[in-house]
Amino acid sequence: MKLAFKEMWRQKRKFSLIFVITLLIVLLSTLITGLADGLAYDNGASLRELDVETFQLAEDADGQLPRSFIELPTPETLTPLGVKPLTLVQGTVKQDATLFTLPADSDVGPELDLAVGDVLVDPSFLGDFALGDTIQDFTTGYQFTIAGTTDGRYSHAPVIWASMETWEAFQSHGGQPEYVSAWLGEAPTSLTALSKQEVVEAVPGYTAEQGTFTMMRGFLLFIGAFILTAFFYMLTLQKLPELGILKAIGIRPRVIGTALVTQVMTTVLVASLSAAVLTALVASFVPSDIPFRFEAGHVLFYSVIMFVLSLIGTLLPLWKLRHLDAADALGGTLQ
C-alpha cells in the first residue's frame, strides 16, 4: 500500500484526472438513481404511505387498483379502499387527480374526519385551486370541496383523499354500481392477495420507467469501469521500464499487483463517497416539482457495483504485470 500511495502522490496530475473522470461517472450514476427513486416514489407514494402490507384485488384487475371492482360486502376484519382517476374542473381550469377513499375511522391512511363531499388534496393540486374551492368531476358532475391538504401522489398525479361516505355519495350521484377497489389486510378471501410492492409495480408505466433507468445505470457503470480499466492499463504500459527495475531488484509481482489494486480501490472508493455527498447536496436543492430522492441504500448499492466492476477491470493490467519480463522491460522491447 505504501508503494501505491507514494506513486499516487508523485503522479498527482495523472491520478487527479483519473479521479475526476471516475467521480463524474459515479456522480452521473447516483444522480440518475436519485431521479429513478424520485419517479418511483412519485408513482406510488400514496400506496407506500399506507400502513398495510397486503392488498386484495379482483382477480382480473392485473394488480391495478382502478381496474379492480369488488361489489361484495367488505369483511369486518378488512379495510375497504376506493380508487378512481378523475378529471376535475372549475370554470375553464381542468386538472387530473386520483380519488382515494378510506373509512373515516381507519388508521391505515390519513385522518379523514371530513364531511361528505370534502376532500384533502396533495399540495401540488393547489396550483390552480385554493382551500375552500369547489371543484367538479368532469364526468359525473359531482362536486368536491377542498378542505385541507395531505401529501399523496399516484401515477405521477396528485391524490385527493375523501371518506368512504363521500365515495358512496359519488357513486350514487353518477348512477354507478357500488364497489370498492381493494380490501386491505390479511384474511382468507376469494380475491387475489398482493403485496404493497406488487401493487406499486402494477401502476401503469412503473415497470417500463424503472426498467429504462436500470438499463441506463447498468450501461453507465459498465462504461465507467471500462474507462477506468483503460486508464490503469495505459499507466501500466507507460511504466513498464520502472516495473522491470522493481522486478530486477527483487520486488515480488504480488507487491506490484497489490499496489495497482490499492490505487483502483482508493480511486473508486473516494469517488463513490464524494458522489454520494454531492448527490445528497443536490437532493436538498432540487425544486419540489422535480421528483428526486436520495436513498442512501440505493446509492451504496450502485457504488458497490462500480467497485466490483472496477476490481474485475484490474485483471487486465494485472495479467500484463504477471507476464512482465524484467530483462525485456529494461531493454525496451515491450510495448
Automatic annotation (TrEMBL):
InterPro entries from the UniProt entry: ABC-4/HrtB_transporter, ABC3_permease_C
Bilayer topology term: Multi-pass membrane protein
UniProt keyword list: Cell membrane, Membrane, Transmembrane, Transmembrane helix, Transport
Top-level taxon: Bacteria
Location in or out of the cell: Cell membrane
TM helices/strands, residue ranges: 215-235, 255-287, 299-319
Keyword Transport: yes
Domain ABC3 transporter permease C-terminal: 218-325
Family of the protein in this entry: Belongs to the ABC-4 integral membrane protein family. HrtB subfamily.
Function: Part of the ABC transporter complex hrt involved in hemin import. Responsible for the translocation of the substrate across the membrane.
Official protein name in the record: Putative hemin transport system permease protein HrtB
Organism of derivation: Exiguobacterium aurantiacum
